[in-house]
Amino acid sequence: MKALTTLTALMLAASALPALAEDAAACGTVRLSDPGWTDITATNGVAAVLLEALGYEPDIATLSVPVGYEALKNGQTDVFLGNWMPAQQTFRDDLDASGTVVELVQNLEGAKFTLAVNKAGADAGVKDFGDLDAQKDAFGGKIYGIEPGAPANQSIQAMIEADEFGLGDWELVESGEQAMLAQVGRSGDTPVVFLAWAPHPMNEAIDITYLSGGDAQFGPDYGGATVHTLARKEWVAACPNAARLFSQLVFDVPMENVLMGKILDDGADPKEAAVEWLAENPQAIDAWLDGVTTLDGQPGTEAVKAAVAG
Question: How far apart are CA 296 and CA 200, in angstroms?
Fold first, then answer.
């Protein structure tokens, strides 16, 4: 709450500045980080397109989650679009304690990560973790996970070892994201249970039913999560125009599914994917650019629309 109060004061102070002098030339480069997750690569791509159209230069560094948080805390980056909560609560607590970072906005809701079944599995009556064991033969007694060592796999294995939901004689099949999804894709009319999450293009390509009942293993609301945008407090104060853009830059799961699909499935560059989506959804530009100018003080909405159309 303290961080949000501080942010409010900073943004109110920023709004009092003349529109043509909001951001100094030193704000021209905006430093972001990417932990290597396609969802953040996609949203960073959107941010990069907007920033470039406004006359800023985005500088995106690929940094692991722990390194990225340290970089933000120590002033080596300015903005991070990928604060997944509650999974990153420990990192967030450290940042909040430092007093150097503020939250600009919750940029995504409806994210989730838990077990799911394909259409054949749902048609077999499986809607909950507790429904699985009665259909063991139909599922072949297998749960398909991602790469070995992944925390989600560890949760599944612990569930099996504890014989929760009667799954003690089931098998965890570890492979990787693409191998797992390939297995689901070729399953046809055979029920399959697997790890699924959103945002991800699998939600557009596969008829997925997320299973209830796994709160103890994956958290409530189907392993529900929200994603937040964090920024350096000093950067927000010094660069209020860019900070306003990021405070209004919010996404939704269907949008990210589409962007990630263009990147993962079509091999599109993140900025190319963003330009294509923006050209098809110009209404998003109006909301994101409300009250935002170019770096030299010109109307921001018109600049972005011209860049996307060009």
Answer: 37
Which residues touch 104 (CB under 8 Å, ≥6 apart)?
Answer: 7, 79, 229, 230, 231, 236, 243, 246, 247
The pLDDT of residue 171 is above 50: yes
- Give the mean model confidence (pLDDT) for residues 212-236: 95
Give per-residue pLDDT as tens, 41-85. 999 999 999 999 999 999 999 998 899 999 999 999 999 999 988
Looking at residue 157, the DSSP 8-state letter turns out to be H
Topology of domain 112-223, per CATH? D-Maltodextrin-Binding Protein; domain 2 (3.40.190)
Distances (CA, A) of 292 to 18, 30, 32, 105, 307: 12, 15, 19, 16, 15
pLDDT band with cut points at 50, 70 and 90 for residue 166: very high
How far CA 150 is from CA of 19, 84, 153, 154, 211, in Å, comes to 48, 17, 5, 6, 20
60-95: burial string, b at 16+ Cβ within 10 Å, e else: beebebeebbbbbbeeebbbbbbbbbebbeebbeeb
CATH of domain 2-109+225-309: 3.40.190.10
Cα–Cα–Cα angle for 137, 139, 141, rounded to 5 degrees: 70
